[in-house]
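So, who can interpret the following?
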Amino acid sequence: MCQFIETIRIENGQIHNLSYHNHRLNETRAHFFKDSQPIDLANYIKIPVAEQEKDTPNRIKCRVLYAQFVEEITYAPYRLHPVHTLKLINCDEISYSYKSTDRDLLNKLHNQRGEADDILIIKNDLLTDTSIANIALFDGTHWYTPSAPLLKGTQRASLLEQGRLFEKPLTIDNLYSFQQITLFNAMIPFGEVRLPVNKAQISFS
């Protein structure tokens, strides 16, 4: 049976981007389970009482496991792992259009990172995502995100709708013409993880 995941950020008593998570969850269910009726995650997710306790990290990772129906919801403190270097990895076979529990190929590619902190995957000569995050590149004026990511993230959808990001086919040939790269996903706010674009930080070696 196919199983899928929504990873939702709860911070300072707020559930972030819930409407976008609802949309993706229901699109996924409609694709794989044809007779599914839409559900609202607001009826399932509760802000943990522990989040408001002293000395508890205020960023909580809410993990929703589902197939046709919601199967499990777990909560855990989230701690950001710094990313300072990326290794470019080619893989034309990878497909991750739906956020499923099957991450075998992503994990195999991540294991090829060597001394780097994470990987940046190239598919059909186009930049896509890291192993866990969407990316955006800054040219000094605007932020551009790949028009063909592996996974269309919920924060990516929100930023595009707000006009803070622009889609564009991004290739290895024009990567180094940008000034900065930022990594973001449901748990990592836009701009929190960023690094300069140069061959010391992003390379094949």
About this structure: The chain has two domains: 4-77, 86-203. DSSP finds four helices and 13 strands in the chain.
